[in-house]
Amino acid sequence: METPRLYIRELSVNDLMELYAICSDEVLMQFVGDGKPLSIEQVREWLSVTENNYKTKGFGNYAVVNKSDNEMIGYCGLVYSKNIDKIELIYALKKQYWNLGLATEAGAKMIEFGLDRIKLDEIYASIDPENKASENILGKLGFSFAFGQNDEFGYSTHYYRITAKQLPADSR
């Protein structure tokens, strides 16, 4: 997949160290999962699950690559949430790429992929209520607040939702 400034491609085992650099960053991971950085073993397992998801589900988590220098700057994808039994949009970018509209750009492409190409009826996103930056991104992407509940780690979480009916007619 491609946007004006990004390549969005499947992750592979060759991305282990780059993905680990992102997932081991305490600031980046403060609003992800249990809020703790991932170990290299956890990232390796996540890559294995992701590669299996591509084969079995037709989607998963993807590398976000800056076109200008081919650097992997983050991830964005669609994953199954056991907690709510729904498909969720996830994303994280290295700090130096925040506030440039890149998370919105990657998220928009992933929503188009999920709702238009693989024909999901809806996509959810979950955020920590204190994560105002992600709340703003989800608003720009067209998500609406769906409900609040504790996530699988017991943390207060806001869930947002977008449906295929909300996609602009020219993207379908």
Strand order of the largest sheet: 1-2-3-4
Instruction: Write down the oligomeric state.
Output: single chain
- Biggest sheet overview: 4 strands, antiparallel
Alpha carbon gap, first and last residue: 16 Å
What does this entry look like structurally?
The chain is 32% helix and 29% strand. It has 172 residues and is of the alpha+beta class. The strands form 2 sheets. A 4-stranded antiparallel β-sheet has the order 1-2-3-4, sandwiched between helices. The chain has a 3-stranded antiparallel β-sheet with strand order 5-7-6. Helix 1 crosses helix 3 and helix 4 crosses helix 5. The longest helix is centred in the first third of the chain and has 17 residues, at 40-56. The radius of gyration is 15 Å and the shape is globular. 28% of the residues are buried.
Show the helix and strand layout:
Layout lengths: L5 E5 L5 H8 L2 H4 L10 H17 L4 E6 L5 E10 L4 E8 L8 H16 L4 E6 L4 H10 L2 E7 L5 E8 L9
Antiparallel strand pairs: 1-2, 2-3, 3-4, 5-7, 6-7
The gist of it:
The chain is an alpha+beta fold and 172 residues long.
List its salient traits:
172 residues, alpha+beta, 4-stranded antiparallel sheet, 3-stranded antiparallel sheet
